[in-house]
Design goal:
The structure holds two protein chains of two kinds.
Chain A (H helix, E strand, L loop, with lengths): L20 H31 L11 H4 L2 H26 L3 H32 L7 H31 L9 H31 L1
Helix pairs in contact in A: 1-5, 1-6, 3-4, 3-6, 4-5, 5-6
Chain B lengths: L11 H38 L3 H23 L8 H27 L1
Helix pairs in contact in B: 1-2
Classes of the chains: A mainly alpha, B mainly alpha.
Chain lengths: ~210, ~110
């Protein structure tokens, strides 16, 4: 099949990401991968909960004095909004509006970068306070969990940017539609993990 | 390889219908987003207001679960057809996730 075949809004299939065999395999394989990611984050959450506020005796840091809610609230709103903007991108993909999709993905990337900047600021702030990676069992568990999520944000941003650049002049095809679709699923999954991070780590941490 | 895709040209009526339907779906997505923002606001306000720990923790965990279900079923399209295998993958992972958390916590508390 000619992957570069041009479609019009009239002929563009309803589910362009699942028309080709390759697209179907990508879709299913990617969800299997997301299942694996869920297990990865579950182990990190379990470790964090087991080691929360624990470490060497006389430890000076605890969740209810360390975390600041306003910053976490802003980060949450930014990431949640970026999830909606990538839904808009997929809406334009279904309507075969390439420029619309690229624009919304660019907004998603900008929001992701803002989130990442705030996270770097937060980690830097903790390290300056003396709460660094090797400070205690608690600090290691915290930085590993939240840092792994941050790493996913970096990978997601790199992925979306590369897709946008590589396909900028190509337009839509049944070859790149599954790529865009899975990238947007990945971005939503990052938001799913963050919902549990802000609830379990930050909100439950401030409560005690 | 069965890579061949049949090209189907929609009639103008079909095209208008599907465009309308997508627009409606998108409006529903924005509503979902509104609900998710609202749930987040409740969680943060409950913690900032300083209610009892035994009240707050179950409530914010429940709100997080609802928000994740919305994200999975609407933003990630799990409510659409053709997602049975996807649900199997995901729920297997969720089962493991609960087992991990239960095991790790009980090892620490009873160990």
């Amino acid at each position: 099949m000619d992957f570069n075949k041009k479609y019009t809004p009239q002929t563009w299939p309803d589910h362009p990401e699942q028309v080709t065999l390759e697209g179907k395999n990508k879709f299913l394989g990617f969800w299997l991968f997301l299942g694996g990611e869920t297990v990865l984050f579950a182990s990190l959450f379990a470790t964090y909960l087991a080691l929360k506020n624990k470490g060497p005796s006389g430890m000076e840091f605890s969740t209810n004095t360390l975390f600041e809610l306003p910053l976490v609230f802003i980060m949450t709103m930014i990431l949640l909004t970026s999830s909606l903007t990538s839904v808009y991108a997929m809406y334009h993909m279904k309507n075969h509006n390439f420029r619309g999709m690229q624009t919304w993905l660019a907004i998603t990337v900008l929001l992701g970068l803002a989130f990442l900047g705030l996270e770097i600021y937060e980690f830097n702030h903790y390290v300056h306070l003396g709460f660094h990676y090797g400070q205690s069992a608690f600090s290691s568990a915290f930085f590993t969990l939240v840092g792994t999520h941050g790493l996913h944000v970096v990978i997601g941003l790199g992925w979306i940017i590369l897709l946008m650049l590589r396909n900028a002049k190509r337009g839509f095809s049944l070859y790149n539609a599954p790529k865009y679709y899975t990238a947007s699923l990945y971005w939503h999954f990052i938001d799913v993990v963050w919902v549990f991070i802000f609830t379990v780590v930050y909100l439950m941490g401030v409560v005690g | 390889m069965s890579h061949d895709a049949q090209v189907y040209v929609r009639s103008q009526t079909e095209f208008d219908y599907i465009k309308q339907k997508r627009k409606k779906d998108m409006r529903n997505q924005v509503t979902t987003f509104g609900i998710m923002i609202f749930l987040t606001l409740i969680s943060f306000t409950a913690v900032a207001a300083g209610f009892s720990v035994y009240l707050i923790v179950p409530v914010i965990l429940l709100l997080a679960a609802i928000q994740v279900v919305l994200q999975l079923y609407y933003f990630m399209h799990m409510s659409e057809k053709n997602h049975q295998v996807v649900a199997f993958f995901l729920y297997s992972a969720v089962l493991l996730a609960f087992t991990f958390i239960l095991t790790f916590l009980t090892i620490i508390w009873w160990g």
